[in-house]
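Regression test case RT-17, inverse folding.

Input:
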C-alpha cells in the first residue's frame, strides 16, 4: 500500500467519524459522550 492510499484510508475514517457524530447529534437526548468521541477522532 502506498502513502497516498494510506492517507486516503485515514481521511475516509475521519469522514465516517464526523458523519457518525452528526447523525448522533440529531438524537434526543443526544449521546454526548459518543458525539465527543467521534468528533475527536475525526480531528486527530
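Golden output:
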Amino acid at each position: 500500500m502506498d502513502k497516498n492510499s494510506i492517507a486516503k484510508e485515514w481521511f475516509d475514517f475521519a469522514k465516517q467519524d464526523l458523519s457518525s457524530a452528526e447523525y448522533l447529534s440529531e438524537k434526543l437526548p443526544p449521546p454526548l459522550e459518543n458525539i465527543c468521541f467521534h468528533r475527536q477522532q475525526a480531528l486527530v
